[in-house]
Amino acid sequence: MTSSILPTYSRAPLTFVKGEGSWLIEQDGRRFLDFGAGIAVNALGHAHPALVSALNEQAQNLWHVSNLYQIPQQQNLADRLVDLTFADTVFFTNSGTESCELAIKMARKYWYDKGAEDRFEIIAFDGSFHGRSSAGIAAAGSEKLTKGFGPLLPGFVHLDWADHEAAAAAISQKTAAMIVEPLQGEGGIRLLPDACLKELRRLCDDHGILLILDEVQCGMGRTGKLFAHEWAGIEPDIMMVAKGIGGGFPLGAVLATENAASGMTAGTHGSTYGGNPLACAVGCTVIDHIAEEAFLEGVQRKSGLLRQPLESLVAAHPDIFQEVRGSGLMLGLKCKIPNSDFLKACYDAELITVPAADNVIRLLPPLNLSEKEISAAVARLDKAAKACETCV
Ligand SMILES: *Cc1c(COP(=O)(O)O)cnc(C)c1O
Question: Taking the complete model, does pTM exceed 0.85, yes or no?
């Protein structure tokens, strides 16, 4: 029978009817500990009182006006992001995919305006995920994303993950930009070494090429800094943001330096919904919480509290797990059994996790979870691992 919902997702038989902090309540009453957080979206958990009141207040005043007019909530959020980051300017979108579209357009327009129309190539890396649009799948390049959707948007060069020597060799007169996730999410929680990110920055500087960072998943406090590239002490020219920035309300952004954004003049890009008052009222409240130094230190501390028992868990279940990966509260368990089996065992233990490529299970809890919830998650992971051992 044809599904009334296009069947592009294979969905778990779970229906959540309520969210409270780090918990999701199933329609049968079971309480699941949410270590997926909508795939790193619900950065402050579910139904955070400050987010609920920001949304309610704005909803009673004004939901939507066009970007043809001034939007103070959007201006506030842009000012905050510019204050807190490398960026001079911000464009708001509704998703990571839309942020990818603009990042690529911006890089190409930059060179076009410099009279270098032939500089349109963008260097990208294997295992990446940049969204599901025609540009996003062409940028990522994996057959899993692109098969059947050709002809693809031309102009992308794909290199092995974290191979900065290959990047040096791939740069030519055609190269406009490089695009990379500082910490791959969908690709299996693969951390780009700081030294590699620094080297990519140096290559871009030497050749005047733009560095685009995709921080859609690893940004907004996820690694314990506001943005993951801060760990390497470098800055991008263009950065894609989404997921956590809206705390569950659809919102994304492209941040850029004045130089990188110089081609994007009036009429060159737009969005009906991007940056509307509702989304930005919520976004302002999210950033007020996450950008606090004490909050980010809390993420780092909780990361340590989670990571240590995870290392013990891996040691205790050598037939199930290979290793712990990642940074901050963006951690992965590389599995030896199919990750889908472990995912199901987690569901049985009333724990939500998210699968990724490379046979990894992602742990992406709300950033404001409690220490008790960390212990509860570890106990549930242990229960799930034990259940899998009886099947191996
Ligand atoms: C999720 C994701 C995207 C796409 O974001 P959507 O909001 O689903 O369009 C792009 N890049 C990365 C790194 C992501 O994790």
Answer: yes
Residue 341 lies in a domain: yes
- Summarize pLDDT for 88-132 with one digit per residue, the tens: 999 999 999 999 999 999 999 999 999 999 999 999 999 999 999
327 and 215 assigned to the same domain: no
Q: Give CA–CA dist 177/49, Å, rounded.
A: 41
Q: Let me know whether 186 and 310 are in one domain.
A: no
Q: What is the DSSP letter of 238?
A: E
Q: What is the whole-number distance in angstroms between the Cα of residue 162 and the centre of ligand 1?
A: 20
Question: Is residue 163 domain-shared with residue 208, that is, in the same domain?
Answer: yes
Among the atoms of ligand 1, which is closest to the Cα of residue 186?
15
Contact 216 CB / ligand 1 (< 6 Å): yes
278 and 180 belong to one structural domain: yes
Question: If you measure from the C-alpha of residue 216 to the centroid of ligand 1, how many angstroms do you get, rounded to a whole number?
Answer: 6
Q: Which domain holds residue 122?
A: 50-290
* CATH number of the domain bearing residue 231: 3.40.640.10
Check whether residue 260 and residue 343 sit in a common domain.
Answer: no
Tell me whether residue 241 is exposed, middle or buried, using C-beta atoms within 10 angstroms of its C-beta: 0 to 12, 13 to 18, 19 or more: buried
Taking CA atoms only, the protein residue closest to ligand 1 atom 11 is 130
Tell me, rounded to whole angstroms, the distance of Cα 73 from its chain centroid: 23
Q: What values do phi and psi take at 214, rounded to 5?
A: -95, 100
- Cα separation of 50 and 247, whole Å? 11
| Centre of ligand 1 from the C-alpha of residue 315, in Å | 32
CA–CA distance, 209 with 373 (Å, rounded to integer): 44
Of the residues 238, 268, 290, the one at which a domain ends: 290
Q: Are residues 63 and 157 in the same domain?
A: yes
The verdict on the CB of residue 101 being under 6 Å from ligand 1 is no
250 C-beta closer than 6 A to ligand 1: no
Distance 40 CA to ligand 1 centre (A): 10
Ligand 1 binding pocket includes 182 (Cβ within 6 Å)? no
270 falls within a domain: yes
239 alpha carbon to ligand 1 midpoint, in Å? 13
Q: Is residue 2 part of a domain?
A: no
- 176-192 pLDDT tens trace: 999 999 999 999 999 99
Q: Is the pLDDT of residue 392 over 80?
A: no
